[in-house]
Amino acid sequence: LRMFEVFERIITAFKEESMLSQAQLKRLLEHRYCSQDRSILSELFMNNFWNWLVERYPLWIAPNALTFVGLMTNVASTLILAWYSPDAKQTAPLWVYLICALSLFFYQSLDATDGKQARRTETATPLGELFDHGCDSVSQTFIVMQICMALQLGYYPIVVMLFWVSATLLFYCAHWQAYVSGMLRFGSCLIALTKLYNRMFQRLVSSMMRFRFDVIEAQFCIMAICTVTSICGPEVWKNELFGIELKILITALAAVAAVIALYSPLTVVFTGGVGKNGSTVADTSVLFPAVPLAAVVLPSMIIFCKSTSNAFLTHIVLYFIMFGIVSAKITCKLVIGHMTKSELQLSDSVFCGPLALFFNQYFDTAINEYPLLLICLVWCAFYFICQSVLLVKQICNFLKIECFRIPTSKSIRVRK
């Protein structure tokens, strides 16, 4: 009975943190999706494929179900790979790398067609956008871990950390600029390069504009790396080009691309927003979203570097998955802030995980770091899932819809 009371109190606390106010729900209903996609692969090839693919879906399949299945496929393949290579140093069976490549393509296809399916079935709602971005915020960490394990970057733990930090910054800043400007932009890497060097290399960069590189292109690069690894083994990336290991060259190119890609959203942020006096859509400071971002990124780096045991090195994938869940939570809060035009709140119980690791180090590692890491991972995952379920249920009740089901009457009407 006492355990039931404790569990009931936890759920009540979750509800208090996750529930939207009536004013937020009304603004959510008024929200209209606004995005800009300039990915060259999307324009030239993938949109045609996605349009063809969505026509093959049965009309009774809910768009959110597509998004969720894609996410679960990606998470499952990454966890299988992590089982064989928890430190990102071990060689997994080659078929696992191929599964990762295929699951990423599967995830990409479902993620790109969920919105098309929503329009096709006349079931597009603000929940679909929130659900899509929420799944993306979780998936980006698992995708980063895939490439780190395929390249066996566990031998360079700082590189793994920088890979994760870069991906977190890129994804968060994309939604930060949406919170500021009201529009989510894709395909900005070479566009940013154009703005940055337009005066010096106008003709050269103008021609490069035809080759815009962003999310879709990055995902195909990761698929290619996983596919090559599945054929040749991870040892292939130890080969040298110009006296430098291929894995290091790939890392350097990724770092350069990340720096360039960050230029565009940060330019939007520092230029000023669409709110009063250049503020955000919620009429708040354009700089405040940097605070929750720093509250995730800085502790992840400090705790990792200050560890006196090998627990985080031996289980580096689990470590960054835990912090990936924390970053997904604050990103979801940013997306909600954008869609409901509301102020961001820094306080969040998901930070209990990182705080536990931090204070454990502060008290000279009173608890073994590996079991504590597992506890913190379970807590963060449990908290994130519970809050997500409660939030989705609240929005579904408000919109009078079901998350994973299209009403039979609507499915029949659309079919006719």
Poorly predicted ranges: 189-211
Structural class: mainly alpha
Secondary-structure arrangement, i.e. CATH architecture: Up-down Bundle
Distance between the termini: 53 Å
The figure for the number of domains is 1
How many helices does DSSP assign?
17
Overall average pLDDT: 86
Order of helices and strands: HHEHHHHHEHHHEEHHHHHHH
Sheet having the most strands: 2 strands, parallel
3D shape: globular
Question: What is the β-strand count?
Answer: 4
- Side-by-side strand order of the widest sheet: 1-2
The CATH topology annotation reads as: Four Helix Bundle (Hemerythrin (Met), subunit A)
Subcellular location: Membrane
Organism: Trichinella spiralis (Trichina worm)
Main location: membrane
Pfam family, one: CDP-OH_P_transf
Word description of this protein:
By secondary structure, the chain is an all-alpha fold. The chain is 71% helix and 2% strand. A two-stranded parallel ribbon has the order 1-2. Strands 3-4 form a two-stranded antiparallel sheet. Keywords: Membrane, Transferase, Transmembrane, Transmembrane helix.
